[in-house]
Every structure is written in C-alpha cells, then in structure tokens.
Structure prediction request, 148 residues.
Amino acid sequence: MSAAELHIVYEADEDRTGKIIATARAGVFAARGEAWFGCDLNAFVKGLRSYPLSWDKPPMIEGGYFDGQGGLAQCLVRIVIRPYDFRGHLLVHADLATLVQSTADADVQNSASIRFLTEYALVERFATELAQVLNGKREAAILIGTMS
Prediction:
C-alpha cells in the first residue's frame, strides 16, 4: 500500500449479493472491515462517476448488521467520498470495524476511521476498477490518496 489508499475486494454470492472486504491506510493508521452488500454497489460506482460530486449527498456505501427495522445496528464498512475544498480535492472517509456477535462483546470490537485526500482523476480510475471487480474481471480496486 502507498502512504494513503483504499483497497476493495469483492466476493460474489449466487443471490446477487456479495461481501466487500475493505482495507484503508493513511500514514501509520490502517484498518480492515468486511460486510455484505446487494445491488447498491452499482449505485455507488455511478455516484463516483458524477462530476462534481455532491456536497450534500456524496457517494456512500455502508453495510453491516441491521436492526430489523431498516436501521444499521452495527456498521462494519462505511465509505464516503465527498468534496473537500473548492480546488477539486476530495475527502475519502472509511469507517471500518470488526464483527461483534453480541452487545456483550462490544468492548472487544476494533474500529477505525481512516481519512485521506484524493482527486477526481483517481476516483474515476477507482470507479472503473470497482466496476470491473463487481463484474468479476478484476481482483481488487485501489483508490490512491494524493500528497497534500
């Protein structure tokens, strides 16, 4: 990994769902998380390709365990890419966590929030790679951070 990057692998299932394994690093900080997703991943790729990215509703995916009423009880993977400034820099924000089977184990859950800057050309390349990953034509998609 470079000084800052987001690395995504996808393991497809037969029922149009799949597991995202996300690893992020910014400097000496690093984290890994995995969660199951459905077809909302294609909407994420489409959102990444929009220009300019929305300040109010940036491209985002989040997954983990739901509470049965549509809410997220335990977030294991959340990735948001939003505008950072008016010079065209983008902020990559990845919240990644380990699985905890019950609330009694919440104290042993590891989680991290990794953030770094990138730019539109690198996000476009990442979107292309991620689409290929989702279609089984590539092993991993990598979004590289820029030096700020």
